[in-house]
Amino acid sequence: MHKDELLQLHSLLCQMKRYFEETGLPLVGEFAEYDDLQVSPQHIHKSKSDHKRAVFLLGKGLAEVVMQGLPDHQARLRERFLRLATAAMVEEEPTAAPRRDAGLPAFALAALSH
Predict the structure, then answer these.
(1) What is the predicted pLDDT for the residue at 102?
(2) 73-97 as b/e, with b when 16 or more CB fall inside 10 Å?
């Protein structure tokens, strides 16, 4: 995925986040990791890896919101998005441990590839 496409996806996911925040749902920190990252779609100077991590953290938070009341499904989705976000962060660090993406599905591998 090209950086401009990633920025567009990041922007769309931010719109979904904003929608859930504005609907009055009882959100309890689902987007805290994303907010702590401090990478928004408008930060075009940030690296592609930063935006990948942001997209995966947004996805994780959105999955948590959507899956409220279904703890088994929520835990699996949360874990998958967290692994993807971690893999995106590790990808940028040249001295980091080897990536553990062998068990990821094809769509996730494609999203992580340059």
Answers:
(1) 57
(2) ebeebbebbebbbbbbbbbeeeeee
Note down the domain range covering 102. Answer: 3-112
Instruction: State the CATH number of the domain containing residue 18.
Output: 1.20.1270.110
Count of domains in the chain?
Answer: 1
**Pairwise CA distance, residues 86 & 73, whole Å:** 20
In whole angstroms, give the CA distance from residue 25 to residue 48. Answer: 31
Does pLDDT of 57 surpass 90? yes
Question: Which letter, b or e, does each residue of 32-54 get, where b requires 16 or more Cβ atoms within 10 Å of its Cβ?
Answer: ebbeebebbbeeeebebbbbbbb
- Cβ(58)–Cβ(34) under 8 Å? yes
